[in-house]
Amino acid sequence: MQYVRPVSATESAPPPEGTPSPGKAGVPGAAPRRVPGQDPRVRWVLTLAVVVVGALTIRPMGFSGRGPAVTALFVVSSLALLARALPENAVSPRLTLLWLTLGIVAAAGLIGASSSGTSYLFAYFLAGHIGYRLDTRPALVLAGLCSLLCGGVLYLRLGPGHHLLPWALGLAAGTPVLIGIINRGQRRAVEAVIAAAESAERAARAEARTAVLTERGRIARDVHDVLAHSLAGINMQLELADALLDTGDLEKVREANNKAHGLVKESLKQAQWTVHALREDALPLLESLTAMLESSGHRDALTVTGAVREVPSPVTQNLLRIAQEALTNAARHAPGGEVGVELAFTASSTTLRIRNRPATREATAGAGSGMGLIGMRERVALLGGTVTAGPVTEGPDRGGWQVEAVIPG
């Protein structure tokens, strides 16, 4: 198993380079997403080209005759066209509609007032941007208005330049709105795909954080079980040795000290078991459980029923930890009481039952961590099983305690 540094609930890994930052869509002031195939620089070049060509070809412009009117209409049309570069979230929909309507009227007026040049290009490019910037219905209505105004100016011969352009050209001025609508649909589709990818990435990060927290909980349970099982036994032997010092019975003191040393060695073995469990190495359930009972001083306490079989590694790991916790509790709360362990194999489940009789010696004072039974339940729940714990109310073990874990499969 490979381990990674745990990620806290308030911390997340930085997104890969080039990944759009989640949550910026539709946020005022946020930079718009770059949509493939719609480079803003291309629009800038085309817009500037229309303005420059119009300035060089549209006549008359100046301060005499129709010059001031043509110049004013040219400036308004140019500003309306240059405003295409404004971000969508920087202009309200109502103001956008007003600006585009004013631009269409100015472009139609420029076609009628000018006597030559490329004034019709303003109407065509503005109609295309109408389809890109507005929703479909208002875009079609405004594009229809553009066609009627431009076609009517030429058809009714309003202005000196009507003979240079056919009225059908003016009537077609609103058709580029369809191109704008297609581009807007493509942009929204791409943005939806990007938003879905960002949502999936956030979900994956949340799942990874959940997996890390789950793994941390499993490690915490393993560490608790090893420490509680080992340190409780060592502490009990050391307290016994301390009490025997006052009696002067050095032989019993030495015996208690030797048991404490033995528990230290057992602690190292338990630590090795924990490392194996964390690495998901396979442990033989029956042999490991037998060794655990013998090291705890409960030789011949195991009874096996049913056909013995190999169980999955997670089942072995968790049953061994449950046995550790139950034996630790028995040693702490019922010292001297006889312990019996039953391992039952059936076709549909594996059952571990640990039962201890009442204490024959005074229990050592001290409260547990309170995490033992919680850890058992968490372990069994992860495997889809059940665990019960409670006092024995009948039979030869009456007054004792029993823990039973049933793992399906």
Give a structural overview.
- By secondary structure, the chain is of the alpha+beta class.
- 57% of the residues lie in helices and 8% in strands.
- The chain contains eleven helices and five strands.
- It has helices spanning 40-57, 67-82, 93-113, 120-133, 136-155, 167-171, 177-245, 250-278, 285-295, 313-333, 372-382, and strands at residues 302-305, 339-345, 349-356, 386-391, 401-408.
- A five-stranded mixed sheet has the order 1-2-3-5-4, with helices on one face.
- It is rod-shaped.
- Residues 1-31 and 366-370 have low confidence and may be disordered.
Summary, kept brief:
The protein has 409 residues and is α+β, with helices and mostly antiparallel strands. It is built from 11 helices and 5 strands; from the N terminus they run H-H-H-H-H-H-H-H-H-E-H-E-E-H-E-E.
